[in-house]
Amino acid sequence: MITLYGVYRSRATRPLWLLHETGTPFTHVPVIQAYRLPDPGAADAPLHTAAPDFLKINPQGQIPVMQEGALILTESLAISLYLARRHGGDFGPQDDAETAQMEQWALFAATSVEGPALEILQAPAGTMGEGIVTVAAEKLRRPLGRLNAHLAGRDWLVGNRFTVADINTAECLRYAQGHAALIAEFPEVDRWLKAAQARPAFQKMWAGRMAEPE
Ligand SMILES: N[C@@H](CCC(=O)N[C@@H](CS)C(=O)NCC(=O)O)C(=O)O
């Protein structure tokens, strides 16, 4: 049995979206970030990332974590790639070339997209925040140009079907979606992102996220 640790309001959305796509049974343990709790030490605090019981599972104190049998994985994109390969059927790779392509898009998302996209999401209001957004948007323009070129004439990133590559990349880019003007500069990316987020499994994941307190 798969156990997925981590609330929806975290990077757990990546494996959760995939698990909703595949319909694979799993146990969800909604571990919350300790910094989001007023008093993580309180006796009635929910299971959180700094709790001794959770640190035994991930000494780094971060979510998501996936456990299946003796295997424990602690990186969201690696979890999604593993679940897709092992349980995902067509959502995962069908040969070595697709494995490499799905890994490529996960690494692209992690190294070229997620950082500046998070800077956009977390930028404070005011002049300083506007400066951060301007710089982060500029950092994203080359990777988004590359993504846009790849998506021209294609619906999805790998194998002409929706796969874990779309989930991992779309979820990292989602952090920058508040910058609508930036996304609009890349119409193929805009179209692809909207199509991915229209999928019932994304909507189910999103409903889970919205049901959690902010
Ligand atoms: N690279 C990791 C990052 C994990 C991460 O930063 N998780 C956040 C929630 S999205 C967390 O657990 N934060 C709590 C903390 O760092 O104390 C991954 O993608 O799994």
Structure overview:
The chain is α+β, with helices and mostly antiparallel strands and 214 residues long. The protein has two domains: 2-90 and 202-211, 3-Layer(aba) Sandwich (Glutaredoxin), CATH 3.40.30; 93-199, Glutathione S-transferase Yfyf (Class Pi), Chain A, domain 2 (Up-down Bundle), CATH 1.20.1050. The chain has helices at residues 13-22, 52-57, 76-87, 96-122, 127-151, 164-173, 180-184, 187-197, 200-211; strands at 2-5, 26-29, 65-68, 71-73. A four-stranded mixed beta sheet has the order 2-1-3-4. The longest helix is centred in the middle third of the chain and has 27 residues, at 96-122. It starts with a strand and ends with a helix. The relative contact order is 0.14. The site of glutathione has 13 residues, from α3.
Topology diagram in text:
Blueprint (H helix, E strand, L loop, with lengths): L1 E4 L7 H10 L3 E4 L22 H6 L7 E4 L2 E3 L2 H12 L8 H27 L4 H25 L12 H10 L6 H5 L2 H11 L2 H12 L3
Parallel strand pairs: 1-2
Antiparallel strand pairs: 1-3, 3-4
Helix pairs in contact: 1-3, 1-6, 1-9, 3-4, 3-6, 4-5, 4-6, 5-8
This protein binds glutathione (GSH).
The site of glutathione has 13 residues, from α3.
Task: Give the ordered list of helices and strands.
Answer: EHEHEEHHHHHHH
Return the CATH architecture of the largest domain.
Up-down Bundle
What is the radius of gyration?
Answer: 18 Å
Largest sheet: 4 strands, mixed
Number of helices: 9
CATH class of the largest domain, named: Mainly Alpha
Low-confidence segments: none
Share of helix among residues? Answer: 55-70%
Spatial separation of the terminal alpha carbons: 29 Å
Shape: globular
In order across it, which strands form the biggest sheet? 2-1-3-4
CATH fold category name of the largest domain: Glutathione S-transferase Yfyf (Class Pi), Chain A, domain 2
Bound molecules: glutathione
The class by helix and strand makeup works out as alpha+beta
Number of strands: 4
The overall number of domains is 2
Mean of residue pLDDT values: 98
Beta fraction of the residues?
5-15%
